[in-house]
Amino acid sequence: MSGRLFFLLGPPSTVVLVLILLRDVFAVFGLYHLGFCLVLPLLVNQVGRRLSWAAHLERLGLKSRNPGRDLGLGLGLAVALGGGTLLAFELLGGVFLANQDVAGTLEAWGAGPQRHTALIWFMTLVNGPAEELYWRGFVHREFDADVRPGPTIAVIAAAYASYHAVTVHLLVGRAVVAGLFLVAIWIAGLGWGWLRLKTGSVWPPLLGHAGAVLGYMLVARPYLDS
User: Fold this and answer.
1) Which residues contact 130 (CB under 8 A, 6 or more apart)?
2) pTM over 0.85
3) How far apart are CA 175 and CA 161, in angstroms?
4) Which of 53, 101, 168, 175 is the most buried (most CB within 10 A)?
């Protein structure tokens, strides 16, 4: 049980501690996205359990039983979530991001103007896929979410969403707005967990998450250039 709790609580704790103590978003990328989300599952499955590469991919949900359906669903979800994110910020961005110095906060986290391009590319290409491979791929199977769905998917979504309570609050500067974002992110995690359960594949949540990230990075780009 202690190992499974580490899988659940270690990543969000790392994100928060690194941002508070090191104030370096690229250290977060290295430790959380690459270390926890990509390398840790590989070590657990292939080094610890001595699973084959094919078995590792199967446990992560990457070996789809119906690839046409899952890729089509994922791409449709990516378009819907990306477009929905752009529309939401078009309508409510003045409320969510009013007078917020996003670029200044990122510079305090070691992502000044000279690193904006690297930040944008990493977030767009790596953030969503890495997080889904971990939370809806690796952790979903470690906690037997297919056997005990409901509460298990809710807990995994809560762990995934938890660190955003800190990161979003620091970016937007208002607790109420950060709370709304946190609820939205938790609901998204529930939806992605449900998709993983129903399809048996990580591809729909992975592509959907990637589309959502692309949407909010397009929203954030003008704030980075300002």
Assistant:
1) 33, 34, 37, 38
2) yes
3) 15
4) 168
pLDDT digits (tens, 9 = 90+) for 215-225: 989 988 877 76
**Joined tokens for residue 111:** 């992502």
Token pair listed for 219: 């929203």
Give yes or no for a contact between 62 and 137, defined as CB atoms under 8 angstroms apart.
Answer: yes
pLDDT at position 72 over 90:
yes
Task: Give the pair of three-digit tokens for residue 44.
Answer: 């657990």
Tokens of 215: 């949407």
Q: Report how far apart, in Å, the C-alpha atoms of 113 and of each of 66, 109, 186, 224 are.
A: 43, 12, 31, 7
- The answer for residues whose C-beta is within 8 angstroms of residue 222's C-beta and 6 or more apart is none
Residue given tokens 């070590």 in the structure block: 43
Report which residue type is found at 31. L
Average predicted confidence (pLDDT) for the chain? 92
